[in-house]
Structures
1.
Amino acid sequence: MNSAVVGSTTHAVRPLRVPRFGASKHAGNGTRFPAGPTARYPFQFLVEVARNPLAMMIAMIRDYGDIAHYRIGPQHLFLFNHPDLIRDVLVTNQKNFHKSRGLERAKRLLGNGLLTSEDEFHLRQRRLVQPAFHRQRIAAYATTMSDFAERTRSNWRDGQTVDMHIEMMRLTLGIVAKTLFDADVDSEAAEIGDALTTAFESFNYAMLPFTEYLEKLPIPAVRRFNAARDRLDQTIYRMIGERRASGEDRGDLLSMLLLAQDTEGDGTGMSDLQLRDEALTIFLAGHETTANALTWTWYLLSQHPDVEARLHAEVDSALGGHLPTFEDLPHLPYTRMVLAESMRLFPPAWAIGRRALHEFDARGYMVPAGSVILMSQYIMHRDPRFFPDPERFDPERWTPEAQAERPKFSYFPFGGGARVCIGEQFAWMEGILLVAAIAQRWRMRLVPGHIVDLQPLITLRPRYGMRMSLELREFPVGADETRPVRAS
């Protein structure tokens, strides 16, 4: 693979330290495995995973192509980097795969929720949650999303410097709490954010062998993780307790979960523990990924004033000064293209892992049962076979014509197959509405000297936040900020 694909972007992002491995090897004993590296010193791969798992994957694909193989102890690991291979795992042969070690270990935080559960239990839970994400219900969330964006943008001041990552985390946290749980968590946002960061920072180490034994020890990292999990539980159990006590059906996700009867199981409703697992999974996933996507979008726009100017022109023309609504979405195609291109360069979920239940054939190579398959959106989205000049930020890649020319799994920010993100349409609508509402009033500029670095945890965060200065845009003459009355 061309090395230009796998380096960091040229837009002032600090380059990743990509390791060098030993000579290519093939496994012996008559077993046909793809090429892969030999560790140059004991535990090299464990060190590289703990240091930066994304950089390690980049090096593997750079040196060994679309399929690479290595081992950590007895564990076989394969890296796939072609749309056909990704489709084979996520769609064609999806029943042969479970989530891999990272999300198995995530049960420490998320329990047995949608992200971590498997097989029939997962299907039953997904059917219980699905109504909250039906198109009509999602449309009803649009007003809340725009109102929260207005609250955020109205609190800013011209010339102010903010950490845009913190601002977007607070904004999307408030939205998911209100739309899906009808709760106000604004006073808890800082504590929840700190707890989430602490929990997420433990996941790279959770990928290492023997961590299930280390987590039983009273070491500082374990104590910090347990305290963070307890803090998140405090918020979730409070919401569950208050709703159970009121007995009120507010028509949101939490009410649906409380009222749901598991007709395919024992016919009862969910326990508080299962409610906690599902609510916490959606509560965290529903704001973390969108906040990261928005943060990287503001960064990219600040680096590309020509794209920013075209975005502002569309927003001004389509909205005429009013807050964006669900009905405005078809009139904001370039806004959607900007968001799509941002998630190409900086996908919030930067890798997906699966564990093979049975032996699997991949281009003639044997993948043994129990092997872990890793697929990286970050790397696939930068492949020049599908995205020429891949480091360039170019929303024009997302015209209908350009998209039709590419295979489906050259771009998969929300995964695919039966386990595609249940909130994908929620996230698209939220992202477009928030970008439009905020860009309507503000420009963001990266603070000079601020270091932009990747932090690949469960999601792809900016390691040092995103310090940006705010520039108030001139509001269109005669613009009416109130929500317009539309004919029914």
2.
Amino acid sequence: MLARVRCGALMGVDAVVVDVEVDMTMGLPFFAIVGLPDNAVKESKVRVIAAIKNCDYQLPQKRVTVNLAPADIRKDGTGFDLPIALGVLAAGGILEPAALERHLFAGELALDGSIKPIRGALPLAVAARDTGLAGVYVPEANVREASVVEGVDVIPVSTFRALVDALAEGVPLLPFRPVAPEAAPPSAGEGVDFTDVRGQEGAKRAMVIAAAGGHNALMIGPPGSGKTMLAKRLPTILPEMSFEEALETTKVYSVVGLVGDRALINERPFRAPHHTISDAGLIGGGSIPRPGEVSLAHNGVLFLDELPEFKKNVLEVLRQPLEDGMVTIARAMQTITFPSRMMLVAAMNPCPCGHAGNPAQACTCHPADVQRYRARVSGPLLDRIDIHVTVPPVRYRDLTPQREGESSNDLRERVSRARVRQAARFTRARGTHCNAQMGPRQIRRFCEVDAESGALLQNVIDRVGMSARAYDRILKVARTIADLDDSEAIRACHVSEAIGYRTLDRKLPG
């Protein structure tokens, strides 16, 4: 007898519907799974057989062949356990095949028949809806994230026996219905505020500009000057995520199994990997590609502290995601694209000892050591960072409790106003949400400069020898500064300030 159950296979941050076809014929007991399964899927037959027996169902002593179609797509993960087990029971006559139609099933089986959570429940629910299925059965632990998808019933299941009994009796389990909109989960930066940062008004101004335009930023300064404090507080001044942004981010986290018990990740991510990370860990990869840190920071902030300490080959793989907002990973079997539209914020010392240019403490580094240290960050990568800002040592008078700067709420209001101006500007531009994402045509249209600003740009570029990419970055930052000033025109003062944020195009202190 032949039975068919629908499941799904992950392809990047999306999913495709897979038909689990189970054929049962006479012959010596045999259980085979075909259709490009990985090791986790191949091992599912052991879990399926044990779960069926431990739930007091009789497994027929026949030849069982399971085909995962389409057979040219690689299948991985443990989510195929549940549909395979249901297909075996349907092929053995315990379940009616009609009871399994119009729904998608996914879940990992424990040996006692309980159903464990899986990765990618949200993309699977999206695939079920887009295919026209009526509902999706997912483990109880995944029901909150899957329920974000409208237009499809999301039905939680906790045990294999309860599900089989319900399907056999024709009494379907009730779909999950959120009682009320969920409150936003605590932010990763809860308890931090820009008022904690003493002094550093210039660096704070640079962080506001970066947040307002979605620009990449690099902070250069001695140890203890507040670079990490500034970076950790950057998410507190970013505008709230839209539903579309939250859905995109949640899909990435769902694929790697990091959603937890949340329905939607509606706080902008802040990822800070250690400098020992590999290129696959940063950009994504593996034999079956998985998202890396740049994708986990999608719609948020990726912070690289001690930038020159990262391996050079690791830093160089950042070029494509910084330029295109996506990562393409090619393998012999498939090519996967992950989203990576994030803000890169990095910090570094001006030299190995960290005190080059510090008037209060002399640098002890040999000039050759300083040169090698700075050369670890290549020019093409620096070209893709819009804002370079020097963070000087903090003076004593700035550390006194009486001196308190603007709060994150105040700065966030200014950033949000600038983002509203940009949203109105880019209403017809697909994929463009902020100034940092402007393409060449949009730069020509929205970043016109007057004669005074043009002369200033010509003088600086001819004298310093900046690249064409650096020129575009200056115009984008100047556009953001003008937006913060509620100015439709870019004036010379805006261009001058934007040029001042190209420290590494000129010279590091030392």
3.
Amino acid sequence: MPPKKPELLSGTLDLLILRVLNGGPLHGFAIAERIHVLSREVLTVEEGSLYPALYRMEAKGWIEPEWGISPRGRRAKLYALTKDGRKQLANEQQIWSQMVFAIGDVLKNT
């Protein structure tokens, strides 16, 4: 039986999206694909999770959509990080780093 692929931990999708968009505006499919590629094909973001997250983040002012042209020449909604989104990314990266160290300490000491 092949090993099960890990699922995204609660609260990590926003961090991953913000991090990917820090490199520049992308459309939804490209965001999911970039996360998949950067994770060495371990993480898969399903459409049913991605778009609600994008809409939620847009409502919070972390990202803003703009219509543009995809690399394939099609009209697409591109999402870009806002100033508040950059601040949120820095906050979430700090929290994530603390969490990783804390979990690592627990795993080493049990």
